[in-house]
Model the fold of this input.
Amino acid sequence: MEERELKNAVEAVIFASGTPVELSKIAQGLKIGMLQAMTICDGLVEEYAKAERGIRIIRLNDSYQMCTVEKYADIIRDVMDIKRNTPLSQAAAEVLAVIAYNQPVTKAFIEQVRGVDCSGVVSSLVSRQLIEEKGRLELPGRPLVYGTTEHFLRCFNISSTDELPPLPNEEQGDE
Done:
């Protein structure tokens, strides 16, 4: 397949999926190398950004997804009669920050940082698909560890947690 045909095929796969598509699956499906697949996908990300259209392609860790541009969110909600999600409570935002910056973490670690029980908040964040169970530690009781999801990345409009702003004490340490 020539380059333009490969780019069109990748675009079709990302569109048809509706969910993030892993770069490895794109490369495997098109029978091309990972580097070539990444070059094509990143090229599509740039093309959509420059085109100033209502949709774009975003990178989420090692996956790509087609989505709408933020400025049309209210129109989309109105047309599709989508209820706006309730904002995160202060407690949920704090727990989410602890997890995002320290993942993977146990519930006990979160409770130690915050000083209060966080069972309900963790359950709420799991149900909102902002965090998920990432496994268990090899410690007595085999506690669950939690981390952020691709949905978290989409909600905060970042490609990876590396793009999170630095913590205040990290900024002071750099000066």
Summary: Residues 22 and 63 are 4 Å apart (CA to CA). The first strand starts at residue 21 and ends at 22. The mean pLDDT is 88.
